[in-house]
Amino acid sequence: MQRISSVRRALLGAFGASLVPRAFAQRVDTYPDRVIKLINPWTPGGPGETVGRPIADILTKAWKQPVILDHRPGANAVIGSAIVARSAPDGYTLLLGQTGPNTISPSIGKGTPYDPIKDFAPITQVTSAALVLAVRADLPIHNIADLITYAKAHPTALSFGSVGAGSTTHLAGEMLKAAGSFQMTHVPYKGAGPVMNDLLGGQISMTFLNIAGIVPHMSSGRIRPIAVTTLKRSPQMSDVPAIAETLPGVEMVSWYALLAPGGTPPAIVDKIYRAVVEGLRQPEVAAIYRAAGQELELSTPAQFEQRIKSEIAKFAKLVKDNNITTE
Q1: What is the DSSP string of 185-205?
Q2: Pair (112, 160) in one structural domain
Q3: Fewest CB within 10 A of the end CB: N or C in the chain?
Q4: Same domain (yes/no): 227, 297
């Protein structure tokens, strides 16, 4: 009896195991069969919505299932990112990721309530954008060499505003300080609007913002763009040099991307990847992104995973070597 029972258990186990790939295949074949949430961890109306809205529309059209852009802002996008990290890995909750919460925040301050590698499944990078370094027009600073000279002659005079502690605009300033071996005070704000208001009002010396945040104010005559943070000049501001032309290797790329919860089956990740990339390659989508200061930049899941790992290591070293905090 014991032997029969053992054989029976073995057969049942084998039968059950054989059902797993079949059931999984059926899930992939029928995915998606209900509403999908695309979490935008930023406030409505900002760059996150500009990038996320076409993605939601593309997937809705491709799959004939609603893809809802769900705004969950807070804590420099950590709150919305954490929601996705805790969600079921079934492809029905996706994240509009960004450089800050996915590669910077885990290494600065109190860190994040999620592991940026284990808790997310990369799908594709979507856009990349240069940050523009703009200074007050009344300062005798017209390029990076001028900035370094002035900062060293006036070591307590300069300040730079960011859209928040631990953001790309914060780390860009810290990276520039470290590369140029000079000092300036970091002043964190809550968003691009307040930081630009204080730059125009003369309360801070400079800031880093995306192109769309700088261009509308250039005609005021009160700010001067002096550099971009990509390794090469931006096609949208080709007359503005890259910081790397003076300080080789200095680079801060602000990107947006699509991620799923960690553990999402590779076949579902691939299905999402193929659908979204096909739609994003339409010329009208690139035009929407470019108008918002973003450039379409797609990658495979493997390529994007490598970028995340590389940037996490890069920013962790920058934070540690320069004792950068969110205070």
Answers
A1: EEEE-SSHHHHHHHHHTTSSS
A2: no
A3: N
A4: no
**Residue 89 is part of which domain span?**
34-128+255-321
Q: What percent of the chain has pLDDT over 70?
A: 91
CATH assignment at residue 230? 3.40.190.10
Q: Is the pLDDT of residue 314 over 90?
A: yes
Amino acid identity of residue 104, one-letter, is I
Q: Measure the CA dihedral 178/184/188/194, to 10°.
A: -130
Of 245, 278, 310, which residue is a domain's last? 245
How far is the first Cα of the chain from the last one, in angstroms, to the nearest whole number?
Answer: 70
Which residues are within 8 A (CB) of 119 and not within 5 positions of it... i.e. 6 or more apart? 85, 261, 262
pLDDT digits (tens, 9 = 90+) for 78-121: 999 999 999 999 999 999 999 999 999 999 878 899 999 999 99
CATH number of the domain at 317, please. 3.40.190.150
Instruction: Count how many domains the chain has.
Output: 2
Based on the fold, state whether residues 153 and 233 are members of the same structural domain.
yes
Both tokens assigned to 98: 């960004």
- Of 197, 227, 245, the one marking the end of a domain is 245
Kindly give the residue spans of alpha helices, DSSP state H, lying in the chain.
2-30, 47-63, 78-85, 99, 144-153, 168-180, 192-200, 211-214, 266-280, 283-291, 301-321
Could you give the CA distance from residue 257 to residue 148 in angstroms, rounded to a whole number? 34
Establish if 308 belongs to a structural domain: yes
pLDDT at 14: 45
Confidence at 8, pLDDT banded by 50, 70, 90: very low
When computed from its CA atoms, the radius of gyration of the chain, rounded to whole angstroms, is 23
Which of 95, 88, 35 has the alpha carbon at shortest distance from 63? 35
**Residue 90 resides in a domain:** yes
List, as one string, the DSSP characters of 154-170: STTT-EEEESSTTSHHH
Residue 189: both structure tokens together: 């704000």
